[in-house]
Amino acid sequence: MSRRTLLRGRLRGEPVLRPPWAIDESPFSDACTGCGDCVRACPEAVLVQAAGGLPMFDPRRGECSFCGDCAGACDAQLFRPVEQRPWALRALVGQECLATQGVVCFSCRDACPTAAIRFAPSRTMPVPEVLSDRCTGCGACIAGCPAGALSLSALHEEAIDA
Questions:
Q1: Domains 3-73 and 89-161 agree in fold
Q2: How many CA atoms are closer than 13 Å to the CA of 95, on its beta-carbon side?
Q3: Which residues bind [4Fe-4S] cluster 1 (predicted)?
């Protein structure tokens, strides 16, 4: 937890989203030198250097295309093979969603490259539903949401493999 997080009264900081294919957090943060090679290699510019210089995925900057350039640029070997699933992240819709407040908005659905967000027909305002089996966690919906109502959350591997 950062001092800033503590001083703002949040007992838990925002979860740090490491680049796709990054190894587990503890060994990653212990071994990463903060050189920035993976950040510079990202053609989508969705990787940034966070506190301490370590790389972080920022979905508000746009969508990860899963090109693998970040993993290929790391001399420290802190990434799993790009043939594996990049990560176990899926989109979550929060209470700030405009559709849940009666405002017509389909921005997340329209931004999603895998059609993982649907609005089921309804007699009232349809609300977004994330189809976990289609969602890659690329972040396109987050960057496209005018209300900032979406986030990425780690799913357990069992839920993904089901």
A1: yes
A2: 0
A3: 32, 35, 38, 42
108 is in an annotated binding site: no
Domain boundaries, given as residue ranges, for the chain: 3-73, 89-161
pTM for this one? 0.82
Q: Is 67 annotated as a binding residue?
A: yes
Q: Is 145 annotated as a binding residue?
A: yes
Q: Give tens-digit pLDDT for 104-153.
A: 999 999 999 999 999 999 888 899 999 999 999 999 999 999 999 999 99
Per-residue model confidence as pLDDT tens digits over 54-67: 999 999 999 999 99
By the 8 A CB rule, do 73 and 35 touch?
no
Question: How far apart, in whole angstroms, are the C-alpha atoms of residue 16 and residue 160?
Answer: 20
Residue 112 among known ligand-binding residues: no
